[in-house]
Amino acid sequence: MILEKHVDINSWNRKNQFYFFKDYDNPFYNICTDVEITKFYQFIKSKNLSFFLSNLFLSIKAANNIEEFRYRIKGNSVIIFEMVNPSSTILNDDNTFKFCRFKYHQNFNEYLSKAEITLKEALQTKNMLNPEACKINVIHYSTIPWIRFNSISHARKYGNDDSIPKIVFGKFYKENSKIMLPVSIEVHHSLIDGYHVAEYLKLYQSYLEHPEENLLEEINE
């Protein structure tokens, strides 16, 4: 069941910001930065875990813990979801792609076991898109593992109520003794400000720096 509730815009502390940006032709803005994944990378290699699914888990875990990342515009209303899920592009054998919606579980072991099944099933279908991936209680993810980027833009269909954040990961690289990962975060300014993006990045980085606390305990449960 998708749990959501309507936000009372008139008493909302973002009322002014919401109405200021909601009718912009392009109300989205994008921030690109790098996060350090040295400890995370070493940990998942030692545990033989999927980089893609483990990193996706820590990112969506951070997003779910930042309330603003769970706001969505729906018609003339704003709603907040109790939880959002990751919907990510995945690569086909012929180098085309499709969209795959994963289910977020706070327990990493439960998330991982189900995500592996979901990924396998998605790769076996010929459909590019499924109805679950089209729901708005998601964050759109993509990975460009061939490119170390410092800027990115997204295809847009104007005139709809799209307010879903988009997060993209690039090609990780070594910088001295550190391993760095490019990250792009694109969000709707009516719902999310730079402060909230910074809070997401700070929390996501803390999870990456303590993978044993955010993955290992769940694995052992």
Topology:
Layout: E1 4-6, H1 15-21, E2 28-36, H2 38-47, H3 51-64, E3 71-74, E4 77-81, E5 85-91, E6 97-101, H4 108-124, E7 138-143, E8 166-169, E9 173-175, E10 178-188, H5 194-209, H6 211-220
Parallel strand pairs: 5-7, 7-8
Antiparallel strand pairs: 1-4, 2-10, 3-4, 5-6, 8-10, 9-10
Helix pairs in contact: 3-5
Overall shape: it is globular
How many helix segments? 6
Major sheet description: 7 strands, mixed
Q: How confident is the prediction overall: mean pLDDT?
A: 93
Give the low-pLDDT segments: none
The CATH architecture of the domain at 22-79 and 139-220 is 2-Layer Sandwich
* Computed structural class: alpha+beta
Which quaternary structure do these chains form? Answer: single chain
In percent terms, what proportion of residues is strand?
Answer: 25-35%
Fraction of helical residues? 25-40%
CATH class of the domain at 22-79 and 139-220: Alpha Beta
The name CATH uses for the topology of the domain at 22-79 and 139-220 is: Chloramphenicol Acetyltransferase
Quote the distance from N terminus to C terminus: 25 Å
Counting DSSP E segments of at least 2 residues, the number of strands comes to 10
Provide the CATH superfamily of the domain at 22-79 and 139-220.
Answer: Chloramphenicol acetyltransferase-like domain
Taken in chain order, the helices and strands follow as EHEHHEEEEHEEEEHH
Rg computed from alpha carbons, rounded to a whole number of angstroms? 17 Å
